[in-house]
Write a structure and sequence with these properties.
The protein is an alpha/beta fold and about 350 residues long. It is built from 17 helices and ten strands. It has two domains: about 190 residues, Periplasmic binding protein-like II (D-Maltodextrin-Binding Protein, domain 2, 3-Layer(aba) Sandwich), CATH 3.40.190; about 160 residues, 3-Layer(aba) Sandwich (D-Maltodextrin-Binding Protein, domain 2), CATH 3.40.190. The chain is globular and about 60 Å long. It binds spermidine. The site of spermidine has 11 residues, from strand 9.
């Protein structure tokens, strides 16, 4: 082959090759929140090299964003946190002309999150879920008998129950705006209240239970529940289903279940947004659109057990997941769910102060 022909052939391959360098993309997402092959598929399709980092706390993400120059092109705050971050000017508006797959998103869910982002100008829903209770069926029955209140926050917020479960391990999320409102709800208070007195009442309850809590952490519990190292976790729906999966795969005798307590629970929406100072805005839009593809979304839900807002993906999600009331709650359960309010600076300081008091035992 002549040199010119070789060069032309090489150029043609380069154009067709998905590996052709198309720049980079830096993503900061929650841990255990994407399918194993999502990033690889995107890189192969676009030639964009992705750096993918993870966090397990809205507070950690917010601190990075407010400090500025995070280096990330896409981040995933929960909607109520996103609202105040939008106010602080840390995100840019989306260019929806670059997001043809946005048509796949459920307009009712996008309407709900418009409360936090008027006009849905800055973010699209990634996944949504609830904050409830994961428990080990055998270990709970051994300690509390067959009448254990596994459908109630009493399982962890009643001091007597917590004391009986302490030896097999209770964990709770390290998330003040989730655990304190759940305790408020258990006490019969409005979980959306931003009243400092209500935070204090909840913190007083949590302080009584705290000696029986093994740890407050927001990602370690997946493996610990699966391995039987803790027996109850207040955690995120999909994470607990992943723990169930891991226990089933290990055939280790731990049967893990997830429940949305009968008193109600927090439901939340995690949003994909682009920081104002992102360096790779074009690539961020490409990734967002890729994620809103029905098959890609369904693959993620089938792997992480979180619900998506993608309507055509529903056809591709496993029936077992669609039918699970812990993932796609029926209407009577939905009525008991609440969505977090936006905690302005004063309420945020108050709830965090109470949280510190709970964790330090003061
Ligand atoms: N492992 C993925 C967890 C995603 C949790 N999202 C946080 C919601 C907070 N309200």
């Amino acid at each position: 082959m002549k040199l010119k022909t070789i060069l032309m052939a090489t150029a043609a391959v380069a154009i067709a090759s998905p590996a052709a360098a198309e720049g980079t993309l830096n993503i900061y997402n929650w841990s255990d929140y994407i399918a194993e092959d999502t990033i690889q598929k995107f890189e192969e399709k676009t030639g964009i090299k992705v750096t993918y980092d993870v966090f397990d706390s809205n507070e950690v993400l917010e601190a990075k964003l407010l400090a500025g120059s995070s280096g990330y092109d896409l981040v995933v705050p929960s909607a109520s946190f996103m609202a105040r971050q939008i106010q602080a000017g840390v995100f840019q508006k989306l260019d929806k002309s670059k997001l043809p797959n946005i048509k796949n998103l459920d307009s009712a869910i996008m309407g709900n999150v418009a409360e936090f982002d008027p006009g849905n100008e800055h973010g699209v829903v990634y996944m949504w879920g609830t904050t409830g209770i994961g428990y080990n069926e055998e270990k709970i029955a051994e300690r509390l008998g067959d009448s254990a209140p596994t459908d109630s926050w009493a399982l962890v917020f009643d001091e007597g129950n917590a004391a009986k479960l302490a030896d097999c391990g209770i964990s709770m999320l390290d998330a003040p705006t989730e655990i304190i409102p759940a305790a408020m709800n258990y006490l019969g208070l409005d979980p959306k209240s931003k009243n400092a007195e209500d935070f204090k009442k909840a913190a007083d309850l949590l302080a009584k239970v705290k000696p029986h809590v093994r740890y407050f952490h927001s990602s370690q519990y997946i493996n610990d529940l699966a391995n039987g190292d803790v027996c109850v976790s207040v955690g995120w729906s999909g994470d607990i289903f992943q723990a169930r999966d891991r226990a089933d795969e290990a055939e280790n005798g731990n049967t893990i279940s997830y429940v949305i307590p009968k008193e109600g629970a927090l439901s939340w929406f995690d949003m994909m947004v682009i920081p104002a100072d992102a360096a790779n805005v074009e690539n961020a839009h490409k990734f967002l659109d890729f994620l809103m593809d029905a098959q890609i979304t369904a693959d993620i839900t089938n792997y992480v057990w979180y619900a998506s807002a993608n309507i055509p993906a529903l056809e591709l999600i496993e029936q077992e997941i669609l039918d699970d009331p812990g993932i796609f709650p029926p209407d009577d359960v939905k009525e008991k769910l609440w969505v977090a309010p936006v905690y302005e600076a004063r309420a945020d300081r108050a709830i965090n102060r109470e949280w510190t008091r709970v964790k330090t035992g003061q």
